[in-house]
């Protein structure tokens, strides 16, 4: 009898929590919608379990692409449906995960009519707030990544809009919620940097040609780019070779925040020893044109790498030699300037293929652009 009860509890828990696999969550694109009898005025979701695989609370709307709200036309980036989180609205889904492992959530979101929209994302006991004041995607949608460490075997992912608007329907649209297991990168031969090619990172949504925004560490305790931190106040954009041009491999980072964001990794060094940092600077072939300058810092050394972008892809390589002044040294990449595409969206230089090696003997200091 005890065994039967235990088996029943295990089966019930399995049905209640989706087993995590890389990709969209069950009904993560919201294409399976509620019955029409559970929609008030055609869009407002009635009942907490009306949308398959999701629980909802607050003012949640089920939106079809092309839906009009006054003079505003709501567009869905993938498929035909999305949800809109109005005042104090939430969507949540239970996930069966491996305790102690790291995961990255990726989802797409767009602003509608609120002035200061943001999304609270949480996987108990961790949470973060992702502001949406800056739009980076040319179609009004952005994809966001957020990482967490699983503290339990079953966790609950919650996306929540904390806004209080006069119009309760004002709030962000959410679509295409996915997950990817993050594997802590190890050192490879000939490189003191981990994940220097940025191949390990969050999930790319299918046909999402606008990349994935990686938030600064003030908004996420765990970086979706393993071994790297995003410092300061703005995000960087994670890009892939399926939709962009990258210098090496299949993934890279576009510095879209000017000096308001920095890509940082801290490494162990020996004071007085000399090290050489090499990396690639280019453009993502996303229409970002003009004279760019990417900066790299290490210890007391700096190199500024000019790159004249035609917006069609390409790259150059740079070298920075430096002498360590402490037991740990921060390797930092930044864009000197803000850049905008013709449609007004932010863009910037691409960083890829970063390598750090120790030199056998101390050479004369040099800063080279190859």
**Would you tell me the structural class of the helices and strands?**
mainly beta
State the shape.
globular
Q: Main sheet, how many strands, which sense, barrel?
A: 7 strands, antiparallel
Assembly form of the protein: single chain
Strand content: over 45%
Number of domains: 2
Question: Could you give the topology of this structure?
Answer:
Layout: H1 2-16, E1 18-19, E2 23-24, E3 39-40, E4 44-45, E5 55-57, E6 60-64, E7 67-69, E8 72-74, E9 81-85, E10 89-96, E11 102-110, E12 118-123, E13 126-131, E14 141-149, E15 154-161, E16 173-182, E17 212-214, E18 229-232, E19 236-240, E20 251-254, E21 261-268, E22 274-283, E23 290-298, E24 301-309, E25 314-323, E26 328-335, E27 339-340, E28 346-347, E29 350-358, E30 367-369
Describe the structure.
This protein is mainly β. The protein folds into 2 domains: 18-182, Jelly Rolls; 212-369, Jelly Rolls (Sandwich), CATH 2.60.120.260. 4% of the residues lie in helices and 46% in strands. The protein contains 1 helix and 30 strands. The strands form 7 sheets. Strands 17-19-20-29-22-25-30 form a 7-stranded antiparallel beta sheet, with no helix packed on it. The chain is globular and about 75 Å long. Mean pLDDT is 88; it is low at 1-15.
